[in-house]
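JOB MANIFEST
job_type = single_chain_structure
chain_count = 1
residues = 292
[input]
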Amino acid sequence: MTIRHLKVFVEVYKHENITKAAESLFITQPTVTRAIQELEEHYGVTLFERINKRLKRTECANKLFFHANNIISSIDQMEKEMKNWDEIGVLRIGATPTIGSVFIPTIINKFSEKYPNIIIKTTINNGTELQKSLYSNQLDLVLIEGGNIMEHLHQEVFAEDKLILVMPPNDKRKNSKDITISSLKDDKFLLREQGSTSRLYLNHIFSKHGISVSPVMESISTHAIIRSVHLGIGISILPEEMVLHSIESGYVSSARIKDEALNRKEFIVWHKNKFLTKSAREFIEICKNIKS
């Protein structure tokens, strides 16, 4: 069993398809098939069930993927260190839409001043998908809101943010300081999509107050939600940084929710088994000091 076997296995596991795995590795399909067969013979297990000419992962495959991914990641990091990765390389960063808009440009600017030859590739996605990308070693570090961190990931606080109630500009409750979460149960809500850290946080808040919210609109775009609120389609609860300008201009209105502060911590997250280069650690420190 070699590292080549593990790399082939990881690609087959991700695609559940021999042809796609071969294409991604630039090798032939028979080579991929032979590598999987050799792995199965080596460990005496079945990694993929062949059902109607399709591959299905077995529980053994799930266990092997976790270990194989970490081994490959460690070897990749060793290669980076041996090749002076802190001078020339790529740092793969993920961020949620809010953090991507508010923090990422400044962070990248500060980092590039110190490491001008390192390319930063940034992915903007919801928190759930970003954490999955850490597991599959597609990202090195991710920045997300809230504390719903998956197992085997390490998190450190780097900032805080606040959510606020956003309403149409002519809402009679605007500027009120006496609104409660439960008093909003009959409102039409416009919320971020399931899987986003904002949505997970709000689901917890609603559940805590014993109400169930079925939004009339779900969107990956905060700007689309703000525009829909402006048009009177419903209300929302959004990050203050993303909506402050719209409130100050009168495009939408806001009010204080008196029984929830709606303050969240923001985290920088990486896999516990991830080797952090000097430049990656510097990126983390820049994040932690971005507001100072």
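[summary]
The longest strand covers residues 153-167.
The mean pLDDT is 90.
exit_status = 0
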